[in-house]
Design brief:
alpha+beta; Glutaredoxin; four-stranded mixed sheet; 4 strands; globular
Amino acid sequence: MGSPYSASPRRPSRAGSIPNVTVFSSAGCHLCERALRVVEEVRVERDFDLEVVAIDGDPELEARYREWLPVVEIDGERAFVYYVQAADLRRKLDAQAQP
């Protein structure tokens, strides 16, 4: 079993641009539903693009994300697995906004 924080390749920083938050989820995943509610709550306060990706039926996504669901990435970097706390998401987004 690998580290839940090492699956995504690093991308160059987008300081000064709007971050992209991606939530990987699956149908019937109550933790995914909870994580998405937290992300949407923070989105009211912070400016970021949101993409929700259902992994169901995609063998590559299933293999990469299933055991860690929900997975939240910020600009392609894994930021959270299993649970998302609003304060932690705000802190990570604020840190990315720093030049």
